[in-house]
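Supplementary Data S3. Sequence and structure tokens for construct A.
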Amino acid sequence: MTKRLIDLESLVRDNIYNLKPYSSARDDYNGSEGIFLDANENPFGTLNRYPDPYQNILKQKLAIIKNVDSRQIFIGNGSDEVIDLALRIFCNPGVDKGLCFTPSYGMYAVSSDINNIELIKLPLTNDFQIDRNSVTPYLSDCNLKVIFICSPNNPTGNLINKSDIEYLLDNFSGIVIVDEAYVDFADSDSLINLLDTYNNLIVSQTFSKAWGIAAARVGVAYSNELIISLFNKVKPPYNVSRLNQEAAISALESYDSFRENISTILAEKTKMKMELQGCKVVNKVYPSDANFFLIEVNDADNVYKQLKDQGIIIRNRNKEVENCVRVTIGSQSENEILIKSLKNL
């Protein structure tokens, strides 16, 4: 495949490009041995020292698993930090724009609002795919700097056609962020394998879903070295705690358990789909490449309320997709309780 390279430096906000980043104590000295009197830390305790600001051990382990250079990896305080930093690096507030396809993950809009960035929202097709005809006119807008694509998409659950993502990468001279929070549940390769072809591609992933450590708030961005260096330039100096780094490292070192848990979830997903299709209140179960289903029911608000009253918490997506709820695949016992309750509604 022929490489497509765009002028990334011209996309960066001038103040960000010229920014002199904060230099922490661990930038001046990154050794592990010595008498540390440089960072005004408390000499007592087990959590008294600042963490590695660049999460080097975690990146080295990820680099092996993902087959990328560690310099192509950014570690964030959840993938939400990746979204926020991308907008701050590439979009001038009140001037530049972002674009996303709806329905999709709500933080694209929230982060855009926080950063005073206009977010263009284009509806997906009836089968929740990108409509090339609707998006093409926007690609030549010089103020459009960032496009967000969630694949597998939340809340619909489906993968976005790879050919449509490549179409955007081929025809857009801004940044394309593919949010792959759920990709480990999909029978499809990550778009990380396109990083060498497109220098305007950022692939975002997370430890919150398939890796099972949502409480640790560890997100990841994969891109080229220039974009990653900009993320490191703008981020807070110690954005990921040592405890969270260690949780992610521990998860990576338990790779067999990771694969086993995914297999269990996917097996439960297959069973749940069959059971859901037998519930009278369920009109449609949408195809899913994630660890959840978008389900059309007779009355989403009422179904949500009745389940909540029984202590079963699902997500009401009625405002995004009419009369639809989103149900996560839980443990076998949790799934059985949900199905039994749905059948009794």
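Construct B, processed identically:
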Amino acid sequence: MVAATESLRIGDARAVVGQRLIGFFAVSLLLSWIPWIVLGVVDANVDEGLGALVFALAASGPSLAALVMWLRYRRTDRMHKQVAWSWGWPLAAVVLGCAPPVLAALLMGVDGIPQHASSVIAGAGGPLGALAYTLIAGPLSEEFGWRGYMQPRLRRYYGRIAATVVLGTAWGLWHVPLFFLNGTGQHDKGLVSLEGLLFFLGLFPLTYTILFVSERLRGGVWAAVLLHAAWNLSEELIPPLSSTGLWVELFLTTLIAISVGLLWRRSPQPQLTASQ
């Protein structure tokens, strides 16, 4: 009888968390997709002026959605943060984030990396401008939602692989409108293309690696922000890879995810949790 009652209680709690995760994702899509669709319909320039401002605000949909959910359920939905401040997870986040794009470029013998990097940095107004843009455009605007809100709640009831699949799918689906907006990297790839396919596939091993640095290394959402920023900046500073280079990059991203998974299996660590 006690076991049945406990099972019912856990089932009810799981249902509540599931409903709130669905609510979070719905709000994320609402805040991001509607402005992006409007920008696409009017064919706005997302690189400057009002179009850039609207685009940036819409890109913050996941983090803003996390804030909305926290305000709505702040009395019953509290996070139990377990961030261990050290040099370990920041270093790991930067290295693991940079490694796939950088190693893929080196293995493919990509030419003109210094010149391309200099051009990108100059276009951003210098190193500080490039760094600020990289942190804001993606890491800060997304990660408080994906890894700050969604990930620990998924991990309360699901294993690492299941959580990675769900979160990677949600992350990929959220990006879909960007393939129809001129001026975005996704638009350059094309939704129905090999580059588009590799983009979506790469999100899953990347999601697992972010899970490792944020949970196993106890870096929390800040480790996710740092790894995401390292990845984005590396990809910006390197000339576009060929199709073969993108396959190499995906292979390296997957290899890193498998490696950290094996390491995690040998030395398990208590997971980050969240209350209802």
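The first helix runs from residue 2 to 41. The mean pLDDT is 90.
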